Amino acid sequence: MTKTILxxxxxxxxxxxxxxGNKTPLEVAKTPNLDQIAIDGISGMMHPVDVGVRPGSDAAxxxxxxxxxxxxxxxxxxxxxxxIGMDLKSDDVALRANVATLDEQGxxxxxxxxxxxxxxxxxxYLGEIEIDGVKFIMKPGLSHRLGLIVRGNGLSHxxxxxDPKKVGVLPSEVKALDDTAQARFTAQVLNKFAQAVxxxxxxxxxxxxxxxxxxxxxxxxxxxxxxxxxxxxxxxxEKYGLHSAAIAAGPLYRGIAKALGMNIIFxxxxxxVTGKPDSNIKAKIDKAIELTSEYDFIFVHIKAADSLxxxxxxxxxxxxxxxxxxAIKSLVDHPEILVAITADHTTAxxxxxxxxxxxxxxxxxxxxxxxxxxAYSERECVKGQLxxxxxxxxxxxxxxxxxxxxxxxx
Length: 410
Ligand code: ZN
Known about the structure:
By secondary structure, this protein is an alpha/beta fold. The protein has 15 helices and 16 strands.
């Protein structure tokens, strides 16, 4: 059976940039290997969630795996928590959280407590907290982040964020987003939880130590993205019959893959797979090729083009795309593998945000139709035979190329 590698380059697509002669970073970057995949394959433009919808990475990834986010997505929290190795029950409400610094008036000075390198001491100190019969379970994530699970009876994920995503203001009061007793109760216990942890963290020895070192104390927890795991979520194997693996450094992407029952592949620290611009992308692509002996479908996530664009660093994005291209050479050398290369959304360097612009998609494999494209870019892929598709169409197209689709009608 033909094996498939799906490479999702986060935030790869862009808008024209004046300093780059009104070209995008993907157009400016020298990408002979991505271009070769486009020459050998079929291309088009993909609207990750829908036409004119600005996609979040979480919703876009679900769509690209064929799970309509309108049906399956309730918030980012559960995927972040799964991605850092927390176990979620179906009734749990999960949130993403970060430690932050409040001043004497309770206003936020820093949303990341001076980019503290770990939340382990905060989580250890707080332990498991119980309020009104509801348990609050925390686990450290990367640097200032942590996962927060709210477990108990009568809860709802339809609550607003405590994190206002800005400084110089008080943390937001958590509010019910619908008119149910469950949402009101959940908002109430989350507010009590926030108050309790802020009180407990005020004079801890580790915060005293941080202050004496001239560092900002981690004296509160901000949280957002409340959600629940959809309990009707079919696994990737159930949906497509494909045994799958995921190569991703970021907790969100690992969490989505885990929710779909994909096997998460870990690298030793010395492999240098970091999810940052310095990440060893070649190791990821080469590992994916190696895994085709064991798995039917391998998802590879490459993060940094998005982070660089969110910093407005278009030259860094150009350089990183050229690094992706070097790693893609290994796929050019394996024509027997079905390869799809795309992005989960456009991240516009000039705006430093995700936009709704469609993203380039190329599919290459034995027996796949080809078109007349000469390069892999936003401008070129629009001329491709795939035309414009929605993210949710990608998996059905791949499954049909693999000869695994069922006939509609007789
Ligand atoms: Zn993304």
